[in-house]
């Protein structure tokens, strides 16, 4: 008997891809004999799924790489699943995790809600050796590619670092993101390298982003700053999620790419002292990478 094939197109940002990983585990548990094939439009998507035992094949969405699958999708000759949940305006209409929303789209229930990332022993070794050269390394990510309205006042990051001299802050992100003067600069590393650095850090602090989601894969204690989006949907239990909404929040699915007309008041409401206190509380925990 031929194995049932479940074809999935992985649209969305890197954070959405990370958030989808618990659903693939549940999908495999519900259909243990199935063959799950995931079609990815970018290298970053494929990097997240690499080595994932819940996925049988990772392929490109390109016509030239997969003309048969592309034609099947175009002419609707086979069923292709997607988990694009953004059109549901989750910040407005949901009070449950994005991971559960995605699971609902696959018609599965999550027994394990943790994000799943599988690093190689060599990736682990390199990250562990690099991070061992720093005193109390804390990973920092200050930019939201989803919405600039989710970003904290830039000068606050240096103030936070100066207030915690016993820790080394290591900044991850893309090269075009603003550099925090007091942080060690690791912007521009590959996404999988960044994931490995997160796993072998003492902790994490940053805004709601793909890297804040990645902490959940490794149980890293973190502090995540929320404003236009809310932790009920995009937060994780391993983090302290700081959220001080104003009357207009959450507005992520209203403003979209538009600038906040109120100067991101919800993000300004979160003080350096509050972030420092929360981060110290998290760093008191003993974290041993799995």
TrEMBL record:
GO terms for molecular function: ADP-heptose-lipopolysaccharide heptosyltransferase activity. The keyword Glycosyltransferase applies. It comes from the Bacteria. The keyword Transferase applies. This is ADP-heptose:LPS heptosyltransferase. Keywords: Glycosyltransferase, Transferase. GO terms for cellular component: cytosol. One of its GO terms (biological process) is lipopolysaccharide core region biosynthetic process.
């Amino acid at each position: 008997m031929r194995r049932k094939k479940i074809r999935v197109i992985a649209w969305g940002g890197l954070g959405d891809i990370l958030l989808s990983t618990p659903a693939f585990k549940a999908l495999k548990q519900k259909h243990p004999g199935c063959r799950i094939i995931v079609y990815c439009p970018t290298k970053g998507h494929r990097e997240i799924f690499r080595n994932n035992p819940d996925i049988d094949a990772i392929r490109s969405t390109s016509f030239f790489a997969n003309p048969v699958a592309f034609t099947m999708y175009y002419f609707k000759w086979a069923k292709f699943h997607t988990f694009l949940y953004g059109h549901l305006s989750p910040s407005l209409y949901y009070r449950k995790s994005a991971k559960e929303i995605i699971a609902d789209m696959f018609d599965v229930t999550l027994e394990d809600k943790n994000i799943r990332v599988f690093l190689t022993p060599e990736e682990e070794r390199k990250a562990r050796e690099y991070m061992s050269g720093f005193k109390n390394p804390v990973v920092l990510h200050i930019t939201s590619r989803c919405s600039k309205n989710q970003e904290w006042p830039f000068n606050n990051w240096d103030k936070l670092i100066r207030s915690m001299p016993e820790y080394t802050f290591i900044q991850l992100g893309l090269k075009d993101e603003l550099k925090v003067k007091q942080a060690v600069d690791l912007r521009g590393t590959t996404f999988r390298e960044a994931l490995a650095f997160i796993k072998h850090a003492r902790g994490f602090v940053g805004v709601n982003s793909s890297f804040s989601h990645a902490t959940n894969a490794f149980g890293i204690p973190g502090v995540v700053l929320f404003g236009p989006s809310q932790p009920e949907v995009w937060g994780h239990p391993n983090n302290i999620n700081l959220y001080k909404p104003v009357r207009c929040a959450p507005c992520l699915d209203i403003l979209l790419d538009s600038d906040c007309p109120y100067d991101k008041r919800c993000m300004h409401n979160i003080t350096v002292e509050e972030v420092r206190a929360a981060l110290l509380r998290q760093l008191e925990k003993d974290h041993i990478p799995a």
